[in-house]
Each structure stands twice: as C-alpha cells, then as structure tokens.
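Re: Re: token formats

Sure, here are both.
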Amino acid sequence: MKYGVLLVDGQPTLGTLIGDRWVDLGRATVDYHRMVEGNDVARPRDVGDLLRNGWMNRSSYRRIAEFVQRHGRLSDYALAETEQSFMLPWRPGKVIGIGRNFRAHVAEFDNKLPQEPVYFAKAPTSCVGPGESIIIGPDYGRVDYEGELGVVIGGRGRHVSVEGARALVAGYTLVNDVTARDVQRQDMADGNPWFRSKSADTFCPMGPVVVMAEVLEWPVLTPLETRVNGAVKQQSDTGRFIFSIAEVIAAITRFITLEPGDLISMGTPEGVGPLRDGDVVEVANPQIGVLRNPVRNSHPVAQS
C-alpha cells in the first residue's frame, strides 16, 4: 500500500501500487465514486488530497483496488514505473522536526540527553521531491545531510495520549532534514531558534513515496540508511529512538494541534556530515524505497 506522485506525460499524477503495477489513483477515485457511490468528487492530485479527504486508509485502498480489478481496468489505469519519475508526494501543512532523538547522535555533538522531545519547525517551502537538487547558497557555510523517518499525520488531534497516538498516523515517508550547520551553531550561540538553518529552500527532501501505516508494525521498528555518492554514512533503525513516535505525538499535541497533511520528521542517527557541490545523497529504507537528491551550489538570483 504505497502512494506517490509520478510525472506522466509532463503532468504530476497521483498513483498507488496495486499488485506490482502503479495505477492512476486520481482517475480511479473519480470513476469509483461516480460508478459505485453515485456521486462526483474532485480528482485527488497528491497525497495531501487523500489525507484531507480521509481516503488514505486500508478500507479506501481496498475499495479502489477491488473496483479496478473487478472491472478489468488495471491496464487502463496503469502508469509506467520509473523511480526517477517520482515527485514531491505533497506539501505538508506543517513540518515538525525532532532533534536529539538518537543517543549516539547526541553524543557526536556533545549535547545533553533531552528529558522530553525537542522539536522545531521547518518551513513547508523547504520541501522538495526525489531527484530535485539540494541547493547550497554562497553564505550557508557547512551544510549537513540528516536521514530520517517521516510520520505522515492523517487525523486532527490535540492533547493526544500516548495510547491514542497511533490513530493519528496515516503513513510514513523518508526525509532528509538538511541543515546549515554553521548557521545553526551561530544561532544557538546567539540564543536564537534553529528555524533559518533548517528551512532554507530545498532543505527538506521527502519521498519517494508514502507507505500506509499498516505497512510497518507498531511500535515501528525499521532500518534507516544514508549514503553519499554510494558510501554509507548513517546506518541505524527506529528502535533506537529516545522518544517513540507515540511519545513524540503526545508531547507535540500538548501545545500544537496536528492536522491531516502534517509531517513529523523523527530525528537522525549518528554519522551526519557535510554535503558538497556534485554530491548525490540517498536516504533508504526497504519498505519506503530510496530518496535520492543531487547537491549543487548556487548564487542568489533576485525574484519578485
């Protein structure tokens, strides 16, 4: 049960995997509602549309899959599958990053172990899809990769308990929490938040797809690997979180309402390091796939 946005004939197209074939989910959803439910719905364009409509769950997936297969339309809806064709799955309403959530990562920066989840915001405008370039500006200084698991929020919640947190999770994706490290250190020294060091344009690659929550067992235990130019730089798993996904959701919702389409990036393991012009960075997981992005330097261009 995977969802993604693919570039098909030059157009972004929402797809899902049925069996071993990617199909046009937007078209199938419109046809299903018209032919089976007897109503007209707007064509979903990305994962965000599914989340806001409550359509990213096992029952919705099964209804669409059965409709496509029962009516013999698998070939009609089929899309060509190439990893390079995947795009940004959706632009989250909020991106909340979790800092210092692996003990070994805390140790490599000589920080104190947190007593409760440390979280921060990344601007939604920093989000880019697989294959898009991570841009390093001329005054950014050192820029680091940080491979992470992304938790996709499918429900609205405030004051959510640890026991009730799972109900808010619609799925998972991969995130590269790119960080302007020198800028972050200067801001911390000045007593300022991390926002600008985390939120530069292109500093939140995500994808390549979203897998439904049921794909990963709860509590989530799944590997994470980050590679730069093919060399493994980070290798860990979510069993090493200091704070679990449920604990993080409970902590956030004490202060902030989570809504469908929000994204929580769960923190990075040890092994972070700098990116340079010409690098290719990959964040990998066996269930979700490989989030691959090239890196390039850029000079500022004025825009109106």
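Second one below.
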Amino acid sequence: METIDLTLIWLGIIGIGIFMYVLMDGFDLGVGILFPFAPDDASRDRMMNSVAPIWDGNETWLILGGAGLLAAFPLVYAVFLPALYIGVFLLVAGLIFRGIAFEFRFKASPASRHWWDRSFNIGSTVAAFAQGAVVGAYIQGFEVVDFQYAGGAFDWLTPFTVMTGVGVVTGYALLGATWTVMKTEGATQDWAFRISERLLIGVLAFFVVVSLWTPLSKPFVQARWLDGIAWLWLFPVLTLAASFWVWRALRERRDVVPFVGSMVLFGLFYLGLLISMWPYAVPPDYTFWDAASAPGSQLFLLLGVLFLIPVILVYTAFNYWVFRGKVRDGDGYH
C-alpha cells in the first residue's frame, strides 16, 4: 500500500492559501494604490466603502499561508526570513498603515482626512511592492550554506526584484480598478473603466518582461520551457486570450466580467510561476521535500487545518454575500 505524500497535500493547501490571499487582498490593496487618482473625494468614499467590510477577512488567507509554511516547510522560514527581513518588514508596515487608515479615515474631520488618504495609499503601495519584490527574490534564488542563509541583508534588492515589485503594484491596481467597476456606478465607474484599460496594457508589458527575463537568467527555467513539455506553451496563449477577454469586456462596459477576467489572469501568472520554479522551495538547491518538516508534524497540523479551511470558506462566502451589490452614496460600515 502506497503511503500518502503529505508534502504534496501541504503544497496544495499553502498554494491555495497564498493564491486566495493574492486575489482577495490584491484588489483591496489595488483600491488603495489607485486612491489618489480617483476623480474626487466622493469617489474615494465609495471605493473605501466597497472594501471596508471585507478587507480584514481577506487577510485570513495570508495568516493561513504563513502559518502553514512555518509548520510544513521550516527550511523556507529559516532561509526566507533572514534573506527577506527588510522586505517582510515593509510588507507588514504597509499593511498596518493601510489597516489604521480604514479605521481612522471615517472618523477624521474633513481638514485632516487627507492624512489618512495618504496612509491608505502609501501603505497599500508599499505592501504590494514588497510582495512583488519577495516573489522576485524567490525567482532569483538564495545563497544557502548548511541550510542557512549566507547572503547579505540587501541581496534581495536587485533590478529584477524592483521590476517584479512594480509589476505586482500594477497588477493589484488592475484588480482594484476592475473591482471598482463592479462595485460602483456613475462617474466613479466611468473613471475605473478608463484606468482599467491602461492598467491592463501595463500588466501585459510586465508579463512579457518577466517571461523573457526569467528563463534568460535561470537555465533550468529555460530548459523547462524550451526543451520540456510542449503543452506548457498553452499558458502564454491562454494569458493572451484572457487579456483580450478583459479588454473586450471593458470596451463593452460590462460590470462583472473585467474583474473575473483579471482574476483569471492572476491565476495563469501564478500557475506559470509554479511550473517554472517547480520543485524548488528554496532555489536553486532545495526542493519542497528537502524543506519539509517530519511526516508526524505534518499529519498532526493537517488535522487542524482541514477543520479550519471550511470555516474560513463559509465565513468568507457569507461576508461577500451580505455585502454584495453596488456601493452607493451614504453606504458604510462604520
């Protein structure tokens, strides 16, 4: 009788958790990134009210993914934290500033509200950039000796990670813009339609750059795509098809399809990254099986996580159902 590969099960759980966080917190970070460019203060009120009831629940997936990594793949933590300490600090600081802005902007006087607008924007942008830089650092790899990080504090900061950071900021802005299309009406929605088209072009540009830069800098990625399985090229084709779908939906001024299509784009990017880097947890030397904890530890923690995930799914679905529909003037959760 074959034994169950608990490492693969944990990979699936953590992979889904991270992907859910990217999608669900990505669009509310995108709303914050776009905040200064909104047509007026009334539009900013609508945009913030569209995510205010759900933003904190979205971050549950980040906690699930982070805790799962620590429990199931301790080597990832042992390498990533010292290697990316500054990037992770920027991420957490950005999320804190963004969270504070949610609470205080609604209570601030009109004369002081602009400070919380800036906090919301800067916190969202810094958090998104830090996430993109962390992804870029993962792609470029780490210097590891005897299962410990041997590089410097700023080795993660390279032209490649800056590019991936800006790319994630642009991608989250697209999610935020298409979310705004779906949740608002009138002048705010008209502005969101216009800016979504420009952001879609920017996202595609970064996709092309990353797709060329990564295989040129990583021989094993180049071998996988050029000498590997032919059906892998289906992903770029699907990405272009999904981009055209989003662009057409924006031109036809459809409410829901642009947001759904943007999520599909992120899903394709995510799968492409996993395929390119598989099976390395800590590139370029350590696979997920090298980084995994003992099977007994994985099994013990799995029992709790399998109970927790349905609770999170039900709570999330209920939350989105309660706050479905358009946000109109006067709506708010404070």
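The CA atoms of residues 23 and 263 lie 7 Å apart. The first strand starts at residue 144 and ends at 145.
- S.
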